[in-house]
Amino acid sequence: MCADRLEKLIRQADADAGKAPPMPPDLAARVWQRSRRRQWPMRTLSAAAGLLLILGGTWLLHAPRWFETGTSEVVAEAGEDSSAWQERVRELRREAEWRRGVALALIEARAAGDQPAPEKPAKAEIDPQRRVYAALERAAEVLVTQGDQFQQKAQQPAEAARTYRLALTLYPGSTWAAVAQARLKTLIR
Predict the structure, then answer these.
(1) Which residues are within 8 A (CB) of 115 and not within 5 positions of it... i.e. 6 or more apart?
(2) Percent share of the chain, pLDDT over 90
(3) Residue 143 CA to chain centroid, in angstroms?
(4) 3-state class (DSSP) for residue 182
(5) ∠128-90-135 over CA atoms, to 5°?
(6) How confident is the model at residue 65 (pLDDT cuts 50, 70, 90)?
(7) Residue 52 and residue 40: Cα distance in Å, rounded?
(8) C-alpha span between 93 and 75 (Å, rounded)
């Protein structure tokens, strides 16, 4: 019964509306022109954005290294304990250059399509005393870093002072003991 009413309403609407006017013969051509007019700016903008990305990437690869600054000025201001800092900076530079060389070799190997064999670390004989000294330095560095976190992040100067004193008593000959001493002096002031 419902379908009969619906069908009746549809027939009445068709009769009231009359016959649809015919479509103009050039309708397809007009739609095509409008779509072409809208595509042109998007293609141009896409091409310009791609060109800017390529130019920016090229500039970043070949630009002068403005972010590589020398540390000699900073080390010179460090004061009387600058020789230890200079040695640490030299060590970090050597490590950074080695890592950079490995990364460049990997990039070149991938570009050539080669699969590089994993490098096995050279078995260099390390002096046991030097290894112990490095471990002590690292332990003192950890204590000083922990004291810094107590002081700056946790806002607990008493814990920071206790940690700096612990670094001073456990590792008095290390370079980090001097750092702990300086931080303790600034903390007490």
Answers:
(1) 109
(2) 0
(3) 27
(4) helix
(5) 30
(6) low
(7) 18
(8) 14
Encoded tokens for 97 = 């250059």
* Mean pLDDT estimate for the chain: 76
Count CB-CB contacts under 10 A for residue 150.
19
SS (H, E, C) 15-69: HHHCCCCCCCCCHHHHHHHHHHHHHHHHHHHHHHHHHHHHHHHHHHHHCCCCCCC
Provide the pLDDT confidence category of residue 75 given band limits of 50, 70 and 90: very low
Which helix H or strand E contains 103, and what residues bound it?
helix 82-112
* Dihedral (CA of 130, 136, 138, 141) sign: negative
Cβ(166)–Cβ(183) below 8 Å: no
DSSP designation for 174: S
- Average pLDDT on 142-167 reads 84
| Residue 19 region by backbone torsions, left for phi larger than 0, else alpha for psi between -120 and 50, else beta | beta
The whole-number pLDDT of residue 149 equals 85
For the chain, what is the largest distance between any 2 Cα atoms, rounded to a whole number of angstroms?
105
Q: Which amino acid is at 57?
A: G
Token look-up 């809208």 returns 38
The answer for residues whose C-beta is within 8 angstroms of residue 160's C-beta and 6 or more apart is 147, 148, 150, 151, 183, 187
CA angle 171, 139, 175 (to 5 degrees): 50
